[in-house]
Amino acid sequence: MEDIKELINIINKRKLSQIEVFDKSLISRKDTLFSKLYNNIANENIRTDLQAMVLLYGNEKDNSKYRKLKSRFKTRLLNTLYFLDINNNTSTNLAKKEYADCLNKLYLSNLLLRYAENRNISIKLILDNYQIAKKNNFYDILKEFSFKLLVHYGMTGNEKAYETEKKAYDTYVIEYENEQAAQIIYSKIYLLSHSLKKNQTEKLQEIEIELKKYEAILKKSNSLLVFFFLIRSNLFYFEIKRDNKQINLICNKFIAEYNQYQNSLFKYEYLNNVYLYKLKSLFDTRQYTETLQLANQMSTESKFGLNLLSMNEYTLKTYLNLKELDKAKIFIHEVLHSSAFKHTTKLVKERWLLFDAYVHFAYSYVKNEPFKFSTAKLYNQIPNLVQDKFGLNLSIRIIEILFLIGKNNLDEAITKIENLASYQNRYFKESIYQRSNLFIKLLQIMEKKSFNYKSLKHLKEHTQLNENFDNQIINDNEIIFFDQLWEIILDVLERNDRKLLDRF
């Protein structure tokens, strides 16, 4: 009761004001500017300030009104964060909920230390949550909790508790500093691996230096975060080297050893990330049976649920490359009608609509049916992918060319292939796009040789695509492996040729 009395005294002595937040009643309304802005941003109907201004005020002249509204809107959003119900969350990760709760208690304890007449209520709040923070190794919170307890034990003359807590505090500080150092190194390695100014040799040399720093930190740390960042950085390193075998071995190392380290808030996210790398490595090296087995394992275990659609991509791609099109068609139908698809982002939905186009093409090819598909409709369904000139944008251009070839509309296919030249020069200069560039070159050779399938066999570019998978990293834009896709194109050209001959 004493702590409740103290809380009431604090609140009673200070004026209570109405706190502006977003609640269900406000969000559900349709007639306020706040609700219109909130709901349209949440539904991804508006993405820019200009779009928001036009929606709310109908013109661009009310800039000052919009700025004032936006400022109040942001303040209300920030206020609402204080009242998020962390227990009413779809996430099954208890540690995340506990972290949010501990963080909230740390904030409240700081307030109480400033406004309460004695420190006891703040210390009790810390002690009530101390074991939860210890269980999860929340070192950022633990060092703050422990610091406040140290001061309290010193001020109250509790020598025994002080000495015990000092040892704990020193441990928390060291582990926290180790984790911070690891994250700083990781951020540098991430920066190096994505640098456009450095060549492959420079990247590898600089990353090797940073990896040695990591290993030194890991020797004095038992943090899973430090171990994961070392593993993740090694994955970057071998990705640059295009070494799929080492990527697989590094993944296996984490899977085998992660339980030897202290529990972490992000344990399952780390595991999820590594398993996805392993899944991609198996797929890239065309170990189809192992890919399907791992994807099935990941989709059935609840700890992998956060990336269900990412795992499903590899299942679908495996069916496509195995030409098991009945399975592919059933599988993508299930995905497109699943709750995971329904609740995912627009960008992920667009990816799957593009995958669906590839299923349609491959199914028509395998079943030797007419290539009936509207690429114009597809373009309207995937506006974000169309605008993004990297990644799957090449896949869109390729599927359009594939359907044109399938329909024997070679004049239009020529135009699309010619457009690839400037696109390639602008967006595919890096060595990581080697396979993409080889496939584009094959398409260009095909166009120059007037789609004569007889003269397109045994090209060196196709041979390069069709060998040494252990040392080739496949980009996202390769939904059906380019070497197999080339063989399909040649087969379709030959079929179309035969059909024309049969007419005569």
What do you see in this structure?
- By secondary structure, the protein is mainly alpha-helical.
- It has 3 domains: 67 residues, no CATH class; 151 residues, no CATH class; 160 residues, no CATH class.
- Helix content is 73%, strand content 0%.
- The protein is built from 25 helices and no strands.
- Helix 12 packs antiparallel against helix 13 and helix 13 runs antiparallel to helix 14.
- The model has no long low-confidence stretch (mean pLDDT 86).
Q: Report helical residue fraction.
A: over 70%
Largest sheet: none
* Overall pLDDT confidence: 86
Count of helical segments?
25
Number of domains: 3
Structural class, judged by helices and strands? mainly alpha
**What's the order of the H and E elements?**
HHHHHHHHHHHHHHHHHHHHHHHHH
Morphology: globular
**What ranges have pLDDT less than 50 throughout 5 or more consecutive residues?**
none
The tally of beta strands, per DSSP, is 0
Strand content: under 5%
Radius of gyration: 29 Å
Span from first to last CA? 98 Å
